[in-house]
Amino acid sequence: MPEVRGWFRGLVVTAGMLLATVLALPAHAEPPGAESIPTYDVVLTIRSDGLLHVRETITYDFDRGGEHGIVRRISYRKNNRLFDIRDVRTSSSTGAPARAETAKLLHDVRIDVGDDRRRVHGRQAYVIEYDVAWAFTPYEDHDELQWDALGSDWDVPIGEAAVRVEGPVPLRRVKCQAGTAGSSTRCLRDRDGPFAVDFTQSGLRPRETMTIRVSLPKGAIQVSPPHYARPHWQGTWAGTAALALALAAVVLLARRPAPPYAGETLTAVGTMLIVADLADDILVRGFWAFSLGDGCLAGLALVITGAAAARTRRSRTTEHAAVTGLGD
């Protein structure tokens, strides 16, 4: 039995060594080469003409494979409230490619910073600057700014974030909340001055941000009236009823074909109604400002009915030709 005891003693020693190694590992070790944002510094400058100037300095750690750059998404539409993101400028203090390409999406302005033909590795620093119009909300006794300073679309952690708010008048009512949307966690208030307030926050997880709220005395700056977009959906019961009738017409057309060219006519008229309903918003504010109203729904109903009529007539024509051919 000495061999058995020796084998068992060796097994116990090996298991103990493995357990000690596992316990010595960090509890939340990050995978090697994981991307992150070590520092994120933002300066919000409130101008007397009502514009908000934003300067973001982002230090980004790329993984070993590298990337072509970073992507910043800035909301220009929250519900039906619109903000005007303009004069976007980008640069890099570490020599990384910093050419900016902007695209207006459904609710965000997407800013691609980098070069599709070149990958960057390691730690790089980027500066993004832009102006925001229509950012303030006027009230009877004060004007208010609420701004997402970092954006909640980053899918990497942020080590240290700092937001500085500067104004043309003393800033007495400034708040900052950190975390996901609706979070009540207060940021650390770092330094105060008569015309500037600093906030910091450590250890932000992916999609967490810092939201700034500033209240200024009435008349401290020029505030433009807020701009609003039409809702994406403006249909009423009338438009819904038109769609229901179109579906009923499809069933009827399966039994009783429509007159010649009725399908093409209905489709053409419906298409013109859709274009007329959408064009008003799209031509003025861009493709993503579309709004579906009763005119668009009525046009869609006519297109559905016309397509069903044309399909039924083609099927009947094909069947008739087949029967005629057999008779011959």
From TrEMBL:
Stored InterPro entries: DUF2207
Transmembrane segments: 235-254, 261-279, 285-310
Pfam families named among the record's database cross-references: DUF2207
All residue ranges annotated as the DUF2207 domain in the record: 36-215
Signal peptide: 1-29
Keywords: Membrane, Signal, Transmembrane, Transmembrane helix
Protein name: DUF2207 domain-containing protein
Annotated source species: Actinomadura rudentiformis
